[in-house]
Structures are given as C-alpha cells and as structure tokens.
Amino acid sequence: MIKKIKKLIWNVDGIEFPDNPVGEEATFRLTFGTLLIGILTYHQDIWTFEYSNEFRKNGKINPIIDFPDITKEYTSAELWPFFAARIPALNQPYQFKKIARAKANRNDSVALLKIFGHETITNPFRLDPA
Q1: CA–CA separation, 77 vs 97, rounded Å?
Q2: CA-based end-to-end distance of the chain
Q3: N or C end of the chain: which has fewer CB within 10 A?
Q4: By residue range, what is the domain housing residue 76?
C-alpha cells in the first residue's frame, strides 16, 4: 500500500520513479568548480552515491542534505530527489527535440540525466557523465 501511495505522490514533472532502465550502466561525476564532490552510479538496477576522498579531506563545503554522512555509500532503487530535480519538465517541444536527437526514451532517468543533468538552477553543482 505504501508503495502505491508513494508512486502516486512521488512524481517529478510528469516522470514517475523508479523509471530506471533494466541492465543499463552509468557513472556520473558531481563537481563544484574543480572539486570532485562524489560519484553517482547506476549499476545492476541500483543507484549509488559516494563522496570522493578529495571532498572528505576538503572540509570547507558542507555535505549535501540528502547525503549527510560523508563516509557512507548510499544506495537506492530510486533516483534521489537531489538528482531527479535536474530533469526538467518534459512538456515542452524543445525538450522532446533534445530527447529525440539523443535517441533516448523520455522515461529513462539515466538517459535524461545524461541529456539534461549537467547544470541546474537549484544548486551550484555540476553533474557530468564519466
């Protein structure tokens, strides 16, 4: 029952999660300027986020609210809101054109992060495919 309620509530701009492609693999680097904050991976249908050693040693930048423990490896079957928020509303023709040019599925969170996830106005970090 909770999963059904969560599925009804958890929806980012028309994209229901999880919408992860089966069997796909991906790695993304989260950076702030030249500092590597951490690595986001999608492997065997599981999302993983882990801070880099460089970030752990830095001590000048606070951890991301969704990932407070800098020593922990976070795993989830669903893409966290911190990263999902990078995927824009897909109800604009311009977004459809970008997806079509990339030959991607509009419900594929990995492909959409590759297309749209680089920068966002919601935070100063950059997310790039590795």
Answers
A1: 29
A2: 37
A3: N
A4: 22-86+119-129
